[in-house]
C-alpha cells in the first residue's frame, strides 16, 4: 500500500524567502505524485504532478518539485514566497492513473511580511 | 471547462439525522471519488466509482454511509444516522485516466 509523509505540519517563511515543503512517499510501483493547495473553505487545487516523465516538474505560481527515486522524495519549492502563498499544502501519491490518491496530513504555510 | 460541482456548501444537522450530498463531475470523467477531510487532516478516501460501478469502498462505514452513481454521471453520498464524528468536509473529485484528480469546493458538514 502506498503512503505519504509530510514533514512539518506548519512552516513559516518571510515574504521573498525560499519555500521548501517536504514530502516522502512509499509505493510498491513507480508512483504518480501530486502537490495540491487548499485555501480556507475551498477545495483542492493542483499545483503540479509527476507521472514518470521529467523528474523536475514545474507547476503554477512558480512552484516546482523534484522526484528523487533514491530518496523516495518529492519536495515542493518556490524561490520567493508571496503573501498569497499562505495556505495548506498536500502531497499525494497514486499507484496509477485510476487508483485513488492517498494524501499526506498536510503542511500549513504561513508567510510573514 | 466546467469544474466539479458540489452541493450544498454547508450543512448543519443534529446527531442521528440523515443528510445527503450531491456531486456533478467534469463531463466525460469516468472516475469519481468521495473523500472525507476532518479538520486539520488530509483527505481520506471513502469510495471510488468507475463509471457507475464501485471500485473501492473498503473505507466507507457501510453501517451508516451509502453512495451511488446513477448512469455513471452524478453521485450522491448519504449518511444515516449521522454521528458527531462525521463532522468534516466531504470532497468530491473526478478524474480522467492518467490525469490529476479535479476537486469540487466541498460540503462542510457540522453535526451537533
Question: Mind explaining what this structure looks like?
Answer:
- The complex is a heterodimer of chains A (113) and B (112).
- Chain A contains no helices and eleven strands.
- By secondary structure, chain A is an all-beta fold.
- In chain A, strands 2, 4, 5, 9, 10 and 11 form a six-stranded mixed beta sheet that branches.
- Chain B has 112 residues and is mainly β.
- In chain B, the strands form two sheets. In chain B, strands 2, 4, 5, 6, 9, 10 and 11 form a seven-stranded mixed beta sheet that branches.
- Chain B is globular.
- The model of chain B has no long low-confidence stretch (mean pLDDT 95).
Shape descriptor of chain B reads globular
What integer value in Å does the Rg of chain A equal? 13 Å
Query: What structural class do you assign from the helix and strand content of chain A?
Result: mainly beta
What oligomeric arrangement do these chains adopt? Answer: heterodimer
In terms of structural class, how would the helical and strand content of chain B be classed? mainly beta
Uncertain spans of chain A, ≥5 residues at pLDDT below 50? none
- Our measurement of the CA-to-CA distance between the termini of chain B, rounded to an integer number of angstroms, reads 37 Å
Number of strands of chain B: 11
Q: SSE order of chain B in H/E notation?
A: EEEEEEEEEEE
Largest protein interface, residues of each chain: A-B, 22 and 27 residues
Rg of chain B is: 13 Å
Order of helices and strands of chain A: EEEEEEEEEEE
**Overall body shape of chain A:** globular
Helix content of chain B: under 10%
Distance between the termini of chain A: 41 Å
Q: How many strands, what sense, and barrel or not for the largest sheet of chain A?
A: 6 strands, mixed
In short:
The complex is a heterodimer of chains A (113) and B (112). Chain A has 113 residues and is an all-beta fold. Chain A has strands at residues 3-7, 10-14, 19-26, 32-38, 44-50, 56-58, 64-68, 73-78, 87-94, 102-103, 107-112.
Amino acid at each position: 500500500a502506498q503512503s505519504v509523509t509530510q514533514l512539518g505540519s506548519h512552516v513559516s517563511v518571510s515574504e521573498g524567502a525560499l519555500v521548501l515543503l517536504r514530502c516522502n512517499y512509499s509505493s510498491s510501483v513507480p508512483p504518480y505524485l501530486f502537490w495540491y493547495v487548499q485555501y480556507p473553505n475551498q477545495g483542492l487545487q493542483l499545483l503540479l504532478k509527476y507521472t514518470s516523465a521529467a523528474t523536475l516538474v514545474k507547476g503554477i505560481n512558480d512552484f516546482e518539485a523534484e522526484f528523487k527515486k533514491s530518496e523516495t522524495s518529492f519536495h515542493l519549492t518556490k524561490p520567493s514566497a508571496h503573501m498569497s502563498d499562505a495556505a495548506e499544502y498536500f502531497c499525494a501519491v497514486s499507484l496509477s492513473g485510476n487508483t485513488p490518491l492517498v494524501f499526506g496530513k498536510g503542511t500549513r504555510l504561513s508567510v510573514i511580511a | 471547462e466546467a469544474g466539479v460541482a458540489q452541493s450544498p456548501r454547508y450543512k448543519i444537522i443534529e446527531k442521528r439525522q440523515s443528510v445527503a450530498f450531491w456531486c456533478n463531475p467534469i463531463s466525460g470523467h469516468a472516475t469519481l471519488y468521495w473523500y472525507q477531510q476532518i479538520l486539520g487532516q488530509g483527505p481520506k478516501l471513502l469510495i471510488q466509482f468507475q463509471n457507475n460501478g464501485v471500485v473501492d469502498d473498503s473505507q466507507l462505514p457501510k453501517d451508516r454511509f451509502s453512495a451511488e452513481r446513477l448512469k455513471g454521471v452524478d453521485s450522491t453520498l448519504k449518511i444515516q444516522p449521522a454521528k458527531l464524528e462525521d463532522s468534516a468536509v466531504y470532497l468530491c473529485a473526478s478524474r480522467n485516466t492518467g490525469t490529476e484528480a479535479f476537486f469540487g469546493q466541498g460540503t462542510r458538514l457540522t453535526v451537533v
